[in-house]
Amino acid sequence: MPDEPKKRYERTLLVAEAIPTYDPKTKPHRDKVPKEECLCSYCGAKCCRYFALPIDTPDSWEDFEFIRWYLLHERATVFIEDDSWYLLVHNVCRSLGEDNLCTAYETRPEICRGYTTKNCEYEDEWVYDHYWETPEQVAEYAEAVLGPRKGGCIRTPRPK
Q: What are 25-33's contacts with CB under 8 Å, separation 24+?
């Protein structure tokens, strides 16, 4: 790997694994941040460290198999919020600067332009209806919802 891409890759890994932790004693409540300042300057940029995609609500073992497959990949989780299912991919945006601000702010994607800090995760307080990190957790949930799987094994059947 040439030096420059290797350094960029190592920096990405370092940034992805070193999410800043802000001391609640020094981090002001959102209502206390002066109006002329950007709330993002006080945040760990959680919104730029993952993305969540809506997925269909599973209603069969086949659907749950897809979710199990998602969770076999690193940095992926699945959650339910307000009766909607999401695939959450924990991965840092390439445009996130070391100061937790966007380095491509003027040319950022439309989805970023529409995002506001009005209801963001600044306070570090969020709760999901359900949250899965492993395929085994999903299999257990699927069995509770759908009943025992024929054959009693969480492994997928052999291809025919």
A: 29/123, 30/117, 30/122, 30/123
- Does the residue 10 lie in any domain? yes
* Domains identified in the chain, total number: 1
d(CA 115, CA 47): 9
Q: Is 108 within the bounds of a domain? A: yes
Domain limits at 127? Answer: 3-146
- Model confidence pLDDT, tens digit, residues 25-41: 678 888 888 888 888 88
**pLDDT value of residue 8:** 38
> Directed axis angle between helix 135-146 and helix 61-70, to 10°?
160
Q: Which residues contact 130 (CB under 8 A, 6 or more apart)?
A: 79, 80, 141
Which DSSP state fits 149? P
Per-residue pLDDT of 37-89, as tens digits, reads 888 888 888 899 999 999 999 999 999 999 999 999 999 999 999 999 999 99
Q: Is there a contact between 133 and 73 (Cβ–Cβ < 8 Å)?
A: no
Residue 159 lies in a domain: no
